[in-house]
Fold these 2 entries.
Entry 1:
Amino acid sequence: MNLTLPPKITDRAFSRLNEIGAGKQSKALRIAVEGGGCSGFQYEIKLDDISETDWVSEKDGESVVIDSISLPFLENSIIDFSEELIGAKFTIDNPNAKTSCGCGTSFSI
């Protein structure tokens, strides 16, 4: 799949996948965009199997995958892992999102 600017996965995100042993379980971090949420679209982030139609980014035995329908919504995004006082989570900095809500998982284009 050709993108002008594919999503970038940070070293911190790959490191966290390694810490939880995703690759050793033959799982990848799946990032998907679905309709819904308080702003129109929402992210789904979970460990999942890799499909042959997925866009895949790999590093050090770990993988991040995005399905072909979600991929255009995530073009030029940065997928990271953040640890804060309120908890640790994977984050998405999406330049395509015009607005987002306070939860950080819902956005509009």
Entry 2:
Amino acid sequence: MEEDFIHATAVGEITGLSAGALAQLRYRGIGPKFYKPTPRKVLYKRSEVIAWIEASAKERTSPTYA
């Protein structure tokens, strides 16, 4: 199955995050998985961006107590 690689601008459209916010997530290692085929190009797989968003699903905003 062929994956769609997308640019950070498309990730921003999907997530609502700015290019700067995505850069910070990459730097901190907490954003969606990304690929750097060249030193200046950053790409993402659309399916991995969607999976990253889905992994952040919460059922409540309050902390969970044991």
